Amino acid sequence: xxxxxxxxxxxxxxxxxxxxxxxxxxxxxxxxxxxxxxxxxxxxxxxxxxxxxxxxxxxxxxxxxxxxxxxxxxxxxxxxxxxxxxxxxxxxxxxxxxxxxxxxxxxxxxxxxxxxxxxxxxxxxxxxxxxxxxxxxxxxxxxxxxxxxxxxxxxxxxxxxxxxxxxxxxxxxxxxxxxxxxxxxxxxxxxxxxxxxxxxxxxxxxxxxxxxxxxxxxxxxxxxxxxxxxxxxxxxxxxxxxxxxxxxxxxxxxxxxxxxxxxxxxxxxxxxxxxxxxxxxx
Length: 282
Description:
Elements: E1 4-5, H1 8-28, E2 34-40, H2 44-60, E3 63-69, H3 75-87, E4 93-96, H4 106-112, H5 124-132, H6 140-151, E5 160-164, H7 171-180, E6 184-188, H8 195-199, E7 204-207, E8 225-228, E9 232-233, E10 239-240, H9 245-248, E11 254-255, H10 262-279
Parallel strand pairs: 1-11, 2-3, 2-4, 5-6, 5-7, 7-8, 8-11
Antiparallel strand pairs: 9-10
Helix pairs in contact: 1-10, 2-10, 6-7, 6-10
């Protein structure tokens, strides 16, 4: 068996094409969707992510603005920028690029964002809506994964899904979203004993722990679906995921590559949330 590769680039391109049409309709009615990204410091990975988001916005007609602040920016100064975006009617989405410098409390910054403009889906109001199943912005990476399942007709109903990683950004929300689709979900983390024994029982494995090649072929049940959220840079500069790709592809039925899998869909769903926010202005 050789896995079918879930092509995140292709799916993201389809999403962008759909969004371009929606943006054109908004512009004709006098609304240009606007996304403001706030970048603090000069972390190379963060700068790369922000450039990718800016380019994607431009491709679909979203007005993208990047506020670049020095690493020494105080928490109060950053909060002032967030509050200004909250009050700016032309800003439909606010994204504060993480991680932030250590002297800034990320939780305080996220909580300061207007939930109606929290297109990252990290605000406690939107996370709470996710928990109880009411409408709200969904975190972009888990949202993108769910869209991948849908595009490839992968049913979760009655399946056993294992999530490796319990972050607020990916692990917890993807577990909740898969439960919505009637999967039975097991959460694993750094203190899980016999991790491979747990994952071998899974019909679906989502690896989101940030450890290169943690998941090898002997972790995977034949025919499982494997979603690799990891983005790790090897000493030679190459990007790789949490899954040992060449090993696992001989066992899994479906899997995502790194790069070109979950990453493009994360950005696509950020654009989706921003357009959805702009549509609320009508």
